[in-house]
């Protein structure tokens, strides 16, 4: 049995315990059952004692540390806490997300992709192990997996309605993508084509704006962005910002353009200076 601390969010008479405590009210809190599956002391470096505990939901670790100090007749309080597992979710279940961020989506196996969708496994399996079991049941075939209903998916231990819906939703997104024709990216082979893309953004403006087109290896436009507005100078147009955006889009070339509200078609000395600065990086 463990008595919840007065700083907990449990309610008594409709009010949270910590709210009652802050109001200066004295509250009698009843002890309630908790389960300590294991408690192992991992290090002793006085005055600190480190321990690893596996316990049931609703156990207050801070109170446990206090109780442990009482039993050791030295007093005690919680100095720091690190959770390595919450319910069926463990530290191992977070690794697939890190791998995706570090190495990209294509680096993940089919099971690892599903593991990210379901988030956690069960008491006997990690999310990846559970995902492998699901894939084995359909011969490791995505098309067969797509035939499973929500109820079929929920037959696997650790797959509730929410996880089953996540899997079904991801499969439906993939199906819709496959059925949809990709958006055709405009290809630039002349300055006139670049002009036609940018003129809607730069026509009849009262102030100067600086725009960049980002191109892939096939000279297709993969992005366009306004970099500055209200005057073109070396302060407002930062080459580092342009190149950072280009790298983020994996662009292999860029096209730079800006307008002259005065209608002047000839490049100014400032324009030439800025162009040189951008060429030098």
UniProtKB/TrEMBL annotation:
InterPro entries: MPN, PsdUridine_synth_cat_dom_sf, PsdUridine_synth_N, RadC_JAB, UPF0758, UPF0758_CS, UPF0758_N. Keywords: Hydrolase, Metal-binding, Metalloprotease, Protease, Zinc. Coiled coil: none annotated. GO terms for molecular function: metal ion binding; metallopeptidase activity; pseudouridine synthase activity; RNA binding. It comes from the Eukaryota. It holds the Pfam family TruB_N. Transmembrane segments: none annotated. GO terms for biological process: proteolysis; pseudouridine synthesis; RNA processing. Belongs to the pseudouridine synthase TruB family. This is Uncharacterized protein. It comes from Cyprideis torosa. The lineage of its organism: Eukaryota, Metazoa, Ecdysozoa, Arthropoda, Crustacea.
